């Protein structure tokens, strides 16, 4: 059976859709989990703080591939049949949450101490301080690095091909085997990621520049 | 949970894991040295806008930073033979790591060079330093010192990222883990120990780089 260029591109586009979907799920769920983790990471409870720190260290200090395997084989221990898609979504969510929490912690800590003290003197409790005073200001600083990190999430989804999730890279691998055109196929796969990631990189840079511009 | 954990079959293969870990470290050392060399070259070319190479490095940096490492690896290992470039597994792994780190470190080191005040170079000229001396002591060393923390994290990221090299059968740590679990069927235990091993390696390498930075760049002994 012969493959035309369009056949390869058409199939890669299907894989690309899964890459986009997985990236979105990981980014949204990872963002929510990351926010909870952030609250724990900067809480005044030492135990919670240590726990969050250990979690972040674990996910920043180990390969994403190992995290995928741990989730994939770990859930199976409970006798639950986990699909590659589920394992990929869970592992990438955990991975994303650790990095986002650490990025956001930097943003929160760049808010002057006086803001905490002032809001504390207004009898706001810690969560109220975060919600009404600190986070709104930190959010402005956080946008650029968060968009920048989304590039890492999109690229991270490529590793899920190894546990058999049929996203862009896995599709590319199958097509390369079927067409005997690895150069063309992997070139197109790389192009697909570039088309997804480059606009994100550009907007991160634009946002960063706009933030640092004199007001 | 009815599952009985059993680490003994994994620990029996500890030598394989350690051998894999050692190979991962070797790949990382070679990748780091060559990658940083490209990074310094690229950073100078980019910071001083040396035409036409600055545009070339610009394209290189964007291409690498906006595509996944595993795709770069597959392209090198499976794609390049179509052009007659045939590499062994470890050569492809090293090349991919070098190219990857080279792109990131180009951007990181460039930021350090751009941050050097112009007056410093003028001061160096006033002290009759040769262009090379001035570059080495006034531009490169302070620039590297300034961005060393960022470079160190990137080196650790590249080391951890090299886990996917098992997919082209480079016999590094994750390859050893795959091999062991395929024989003892203790997948979870194997990957748990391997993950912890990676964690230890990441922490040790980070400390080592911080120490090296202090000695070589900050001039503390």
UniProtKB/TrEMBL annotation, chain B:
GO terms for biological process: amino acid transport. Its main location: membrane. SUPFAM superfamilies: MetI-like (SSF161098). One of its GO terms (cellular component) is ATP-binding cassette (ABC) transporter complex. One of its GO terms (molecular function) is transmembrane transporter activity. It is found in: Cell inner membrane; Cell membrane. The keyword Transmembrane helix applies. Residues 21-209 form the ABC transmembrane type-1 domain. It is a multi-pass membrane protein. The chain crosses the membrane at residues 20-48, 190-212. Keywords: Amino-acid transport, Cell membrane, Membrane, Transmembrane, Transmembrane helix, Transport. InterPro entries: AA_ABC_transptr_permease_3TM, ArtM/GltK/GlnP/TcyL/YhdX-like, MetI-like, MetI-like_sf. The keyword Manganese does not apply. Pfam families: BPD_transp_1. Belongs to the binding-protein-dependent transport system permease family. HisMQ subfamily. This is Amino acid ABC transporter permease.
């Amino acid at each position: 059976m012969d493959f035309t260029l369009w056949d390869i591109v058409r199939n890669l586009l299907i894989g690309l859709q899964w890459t986009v979907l997985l990236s979105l799920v990981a980014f949204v769920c990872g963002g929510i989990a990351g926010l909870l983790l952030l609250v724990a990471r900067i809480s005044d409870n030492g135990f919670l703080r240590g726990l969050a720190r250990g979690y972040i260290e674990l996910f920043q200090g180990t390969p994403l591939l190992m995290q995928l395997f741990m989730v994939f084989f770990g859930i199976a221990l409970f006798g639950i049949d986990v699909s590659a898609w589920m394992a990929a979504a869970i592992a990438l969510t955990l991975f994303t949450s650790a990095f986002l929490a650490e990025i956001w912690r930097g943003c929160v800590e760049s808010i002057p101490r006086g803001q905490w003290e002032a809001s504390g003197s207004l009898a706001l409790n810690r969560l109220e301080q975060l919600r009404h005073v600190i986070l709104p200001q930190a959010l402005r600083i956080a946008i650029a690095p968060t968009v920048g990190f989304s590039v890492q999430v999109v690229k991270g989804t490529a590793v899920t091909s190894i546990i058999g999730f049929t996203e862009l890279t896995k599709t590319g691998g199958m097509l390369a085997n079927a067409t005997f055109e690895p150069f063309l196929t992997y070139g197109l796969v790389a192009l697909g990621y570039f088309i997804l990631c480059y606009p994100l990189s550009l907007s991160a840079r634009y946002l960063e520049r706009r933030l640092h511009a004199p007001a | 949970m009815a599952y009985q954990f059993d680490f003994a079959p994994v620990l029996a293969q500890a030598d394989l894991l350690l051998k894999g870990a050692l190979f991962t470290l070797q790949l990382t050392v070679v990748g780091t040295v060559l990658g940083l060399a490209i990074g310094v070259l690229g950073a100078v070319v980019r910071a001083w806008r040396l035409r036409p190479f600055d545009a070339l490095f610009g394209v290189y940096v964007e291409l690498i930073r906006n595509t996944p490492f595993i795709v770069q690896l597959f392209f090198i290992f499976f794609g390049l033979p179509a052009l007659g470039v045939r590499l062994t597994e470890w050569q492809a792994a090293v090349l991919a790591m070098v190219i990857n780190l080279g792109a990131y470190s180009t951007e990181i080191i460039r930021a350090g060079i751009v941050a050097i005040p112009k007056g410093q170079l003028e001061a160096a000229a006033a002290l009759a330093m040769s262009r090379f001396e001035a570059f080495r002591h006034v531009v490169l060393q302070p620039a590297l010192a300034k961005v060393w923390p960022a470079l160190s994290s990137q080196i650790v990221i590249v080391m951890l990222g090299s886990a996917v090299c098992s997919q082209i059968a480079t016999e590094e740590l994750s390859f050893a883990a795959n091999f062991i679990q395929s024989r003892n069927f203790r997948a979870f235990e194997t990957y748990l120990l391997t993950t912890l091993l990676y964690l230890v390696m990441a922490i040790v390498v980070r400390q080592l780089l911080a120490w090296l930075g202090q000695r070589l760049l900050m001039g503390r002994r």
